[in-house]
Structure formats: C-alpha cells, structure tokens
Design goal:
- GO terms for molecular function: ATP binding; phosphoribosylamine-glycine ligase activity; phosphoribosylformylglycinamidine cyclo-ligase activity.
- Pfam families: AIRS, AIRS_C.
- This protein is an alpha+beta fold.
- Helices cover 31% and strands 25% of the residues.
- The protein contains 11 helices and 15 strands.
- The strands form 5 sheets. It has a 4-stranded mixed sheet, covered by helices on one side. Strands 10-12-7-13 form a 4-stranded antiparallel sheet. Strands 11-15-14 form a 3-stranded mixed sheet, covered by helices on one side.
- β14 (350-353) and β15 (356-364) form a beta hairpin.
- The longest helix has 18 residues, at 117-134.
C-alpha cells in the first residue's frame, strides 16, 4: 500500500479492498460482454460499439434508472447479497422492455460504509448474472466507500441502462384500441416494491427475518429475498416472433404505485378497464403478510403487486396466441380484463399516475382462493 493510500485508509477508505472487490467480480462481469463491448473492466467509462444501430431505420434510445429500495435492509440483515443484483437489473431493464426496446448496456453504483470485497463481489455477481440472462452488457460500475455516512454493514445499490427500439415499433398507449385484451404475467414474489410496508408489519409484530414461517415454508428473510422476475428476454422473443408481429400494443411493469396505477399509465386517455380479481390467487407471501398486518388484500393493492409482475395489452384476435407464446416461455399468464372506450362513470377508478394522464383502471370482485 502506498503512503497516500495508507493515509486515506486512516479516514476509513480502503482502496486496496476496492481493488480486491474488482478482481473478484471481473469474471462475472466479463461474461456479459459480447463483441460490442470495447475494452474491459476498470476504465473511466465503458465503451459500447453502436455500429449495429446503423441497421435501424430510425433507432430510438431508451434509458432507465432505478434502485432496489429498502429490500437491501433485508439482504443486509440476512447477510445474503447475491440476489439483490437481479432485483436491480429487473427494476431497470424490465422498464426498458416496456416500450419494446432491447437492452444494450448497463452500469451500476454501490455506496457502502465499508468495502467488504466478497460482499461487493456477491452483489455484482448477481447483477452480472441477470445482465447475462437479459442480454445486457454490464459495461461499468462504481463502488464508493462512505465511512461516517453509512454504517460498516450498510450499502445501497442503483443502476442505469440504455436500450434501443425502432421508432415505428415503440409500444405504448398510442397502439391500444377498444376491445384489446389485458394479459397478466405472474410475479415471483414481492419483487422490489412495498418493502417499507413489509418491514413496518414485521417490526410491529416483533417478527425477525430469521424467524421461520410455517405458512411460507421458509424464514421470513428467505421468502422476502426471492429475486424479482426477469421478463425482458421472454417478452423480446414474443415481440420478435413474425407470427405475432404487431399483436402486443403495450406493456406495463407493475412496480411502485401498485397494480391499477401502473396499468393506467399505458392506456390512452378516454379508455378504461376493470380487472377481475377473481382471475388469480395472490401468492402466499402476500396473503400471510396482509393477515399479519391486519390488512385486506384489497387495501394493499397500491403497495404490492399481489402476484402480477407485468401486464401485456394485446390485440383481441391474437390474445390467445400471445398468451400461448408467453406460457411457452415459462411465464404464468392469464386474462385479467379488456380495454373499453365506451362512456361511463369513472368514479373510483385510478386515472394515470406519475405525471402521466392515462386511462382509468379499477379492480373488481374478490380474489380467487
């Protein structure tokens, strides 16, 4: 260690530990690199050869950024760090595919109180594996040590990605029509939203993450750390299927804001839908947490996905074929509703969200047992 590095270490920043973390993660990161990635790990900027975009008539770049939220607190409490990375990739890349875009490259950022090389490597390995699964090159990242600001075992993760879509193939409200069918795609669990409510419920009931739940068949921490499902690759394969060309009109990633609000964002103004709760049975983790907190499932629809990770709004004539294709990709798929442009009273409907003036959505009926 140089004298300068030694002096820096006295303030709590260990550059040698950071270098070791990079060495531990390099092989996992390299597996996400195709011939488009120029150079390797460690540069000031990641380089991606965009010459393939010349094949597009009018390429539009799609970008997204996100984090994992307070789910990281559970990972820290359980000392399990290799699943958080998939959560991060899913929250970002699955937003990019919503517009029909193919992800190209991603970068990550980890802020921590102290660099523990193996812990950082575990996080990045999870990121890299999810990038590899979604065809996304992990071209760069940053690990920042913030002693005095974060505790020794504290960290937070964030990332950003960019993708590309042909301009005339962008998905969204403009394509949605009266009579379109809404397909729901099953979630793997809580994904990465609503964990502040989860943590509040467990704290109020004096439940530890290491406590085993008979209802969940695992400890609470293990059940809560089930990583967010990755929808990008299956969806892209369906979108690229010539037999289904143009059949998918819009996609909605069910994240913060809950079920109705996220779907309303991708429906055109003047349209509405009622989602039939009876079309699915929420996963056991949702039922158990709601019971534990003294909540009804209906009351937490704005916080948790309740088993729906994505919606696909599709042409009615092709709905059965799209559903079959998604099922063949290993996704759980069911019909949740239908888009209507008829005039009606929209009192009680969610209408748009996050600054978007969209369609109107409400959930009706009771959940299947």
């Amino acid at each position: 260690m140089s004298e300068n590095a030694s002096i820096y270490a006295q303030s709590g920043v260990d550059t040698a530990a950071g270098d070791l973390a990079v060495e531990l993660m390099k092989s996992a990161v390299a597996r996400t690199h195709g011939p488009e990635v120029v150079g390797g790990v460690g540069g000031f900027a990641g380089l991606f050869d965009a010459s393939a975009l010349k094949e597009y008539r009018r390429p539009l770049l799609a970008s997204a950024t996100d984090g994992v939220g307070t789910k990281v607190a559970i990972a820290q409490a359980m000392d399990i760090h290799d699943t958080i990375g998939q959560d991060l990739v899913a929250m970002i890349v699955d937003d990019i595919v919503v517009v029909g875009a193919k992800p190209l490259a991603m970068t990550d950022y980890i802020a921590c109180g102290k660099v523990v090389p193996q812990r950082i490597a575990d996080i990045v390995r999870g990121i890299a594996q999810a990038c590899e699964a979604t065809g996304t090159a992990l071209v760069g990242g940053e690990t920042a040590e913030h002693p005095g600001l974060l505790g020794v075992d504290d960290y937070d993760v964030a990332g950003a990605a960019v993708g590309v879509v042909e301009a005339d193939r962008v998905l969204g409200p403009e394509r949605v029509a009266d009579g379109d069918v809404i397909l729901a795609l099953g979630a793997s669990g809580l994904h990465s939203n609503g964990f502040s409510l989860v943590r509040h419920i467990l704290a109020e009931r004096g439940v530890s993450y290491t406590d085993r739940s008979a209802e969940l068949g695992a400890s609470y921490g293990e059940a809560l750390l089930v990583p967010t499902a990755l929808y990008t690759s299956p969806l892209l394969r369906v979108l690229d299927d010539p037999a289904l060309d143009g059949a998918v009109h819009a996609l909605s990633h069910v994240t913060g804001g809950g079920i109705a609000a996220n779907l309303a964002r991708v429906l055109p103004v003047g349209t509405w839908t009622e989602l039939d709760r009876g079309a699915w049975s929420p996963l056991p983790v949702f039922r158990h947490l709601a019971d534990l907190g003294g909540h009804t499932l209906e009351s937490v629809e704005g916080a948790w996905n309740l088993g729906v990770g994505m919606f696909a709004v599709v042409d009615a004539a092709s709905a059965q074929h799209v559903a079959a294709a998604l099922t063949a990709e290993g996704l759980d798929v069911w019909v949740a509703g239908e888009v209507s442009a008829s005039t009606r009273d929209l009192d009680g409907f969610e209408q748009g969200a996050k600054g978007v003036q969209g369609g109107a959505v409400r959930l009706v009926g009771s959940y299947a047992a």
